[in-house]
Write the structure tokens for this entry.
Amino acid sequence: MDYQPFWCEENIWRLTTDACVGVGERWVLFLTGSSGHVACWGQCAASSADAPVLWDYHVVLVVRQETWAVWDLDCRQGCPLPAATWFAATFPCPDSVRPVFQPRCLLISADEYRTQFTSDRTHMRNPDGGWQQPPPPWPAPQQAHGTTLATYVTRARRGLTLAELTTRLNSRVEPR
């Protein structure tokens, strides 16, 4: 399984077709906040196990076999995790988080993401052109008429709340 810290969108893009995930329905979940930052707990990048990270966005893979499982390569508890376990660990106290940092979500099919996502990686460049974090060793996903990370994140900001997402997954209704 390929992994590069701080590059969740590309890690998940590659994971969508990885055999290690097994068989089952696959969805890509984009998380952000209405202000552009989402508070996530249990992340490897946090200063401690009980501290949140404010990601500008985060991307994970959700797979349905008998139940939903979340593949979050940045989760301290490992992956995959049962969806209920991952949600409880990542958003342990949603009512105490300021509304601007609460998650807004976008679910798209893994197939769509795999064929549409395109990146020039400029979102990880400093003003002087240097990298904020080392880039992955593989080529950036490139689609001729693809969808950019910025577009997905913008759609997520207007997307489902955590409660709406949980209801949708629990009801086994096809995500939209």
